[in-house]
Design goal:
Blueprint lengths: L2 H9 L16 E3 L2 E6 L4 E3 H8 L3 H19 L4 H22 L3 H11 L5 H24 L1 H11 L3 E9 L8 H13 L6 H8 L3 H4 L4 E5 L10 H7 L11 E3 L2 E9 L2 H7 L8 H4 L4 H7 L8 H34 L1
Antiparallel strand pairs: 1-2, 2-3, 4-5, 4-7, 6-7
Length: 336
Amino acid sequence: MNFKKYTAAIMVGSILLSGCSSNSSNIRKEDGKDIVASLTDKDVFADDILNQLLDTNVGKTAYYNAVLEELINTKFPVDEAMRIDADMIVKNTEAHYKANFRENADAQLEAYLASNQWNDLNDFRDAIIKSLQNVRFLEHYVNENYEEVFNDYYAYATPRILSVIKVSMINVESPTEEESAKLEEVNALVHTSKDFNEIASEYSDDQETKRHDGRLGVVDTTTDLSSFGKEVADIALSLEDGEISEPIQGTGGYYILKCNSNKEDDIKSRIKNLGIDSPLLSYDSFLSFIAFNSYTLTYESEEAEQIINEVINKALEQREEGRREKEQDDESGETE
């Protein structure tokens, strides 16, 4: 790995000194070092800036990210499939804004791009392609280490297969007689021999899940169920195999949940095919550090290797600390 190449990359776009020229032929030198700026009584050297930058956590992380990007670009270069997918996502995004904002579509889309620091749709497309490259990088690691990753996912993310029925109410604090009667009827039905998903297809007021007979699929700690309400989301991950919840007050009504299964083999069969939406790629925010560590890289200096190892080790320490805190929270919750 070329140390100076990546330390120089860190500076691009992040350090701006008046008097600097983009034309390298105009850069003055002293003792072989580039002078990037001059003050009244001293010159400012590029090497000194780089050394100071790499003494900070921000600089070290930027250096690691530059090396990671080069690794991904080398091992998983952009291909035609990525370009096609990116074009499709851009096209669908434009269509979404036109359908939902009509005459304000352009302004809303520009605001969305600006909020993500993209100048235009070309920047957006480039970001999508980088994301697709990163997905390939993680997919490769997961495929090569599937059992290990799945076992960790199963233990840490507590996945289960869930279904839901919603009974809507105009005012959940004061339901009408008709709303209360429907809730009682549904709650009675789910405790009979009638299939839960069949009941959902007939009675549920949540149109999105009703189209799938109430099936939510695999739900884990990364699944966003906030639209149902916090209590619904909390109870969802506490249900055991075959368990049906009591009616839970949530957003716009009451919800009844069923855990169709939390068995390891059932979960594995549902997520065996990796893809961009696979929970195995998203459940662990530190997975990219672990995947990076699976490669054997040769560095041009011990300093470069030390910086990379420091960033990775610090990240993995944070990962372990977070997991210890989660275990403590889970244990305290069980004793309450």
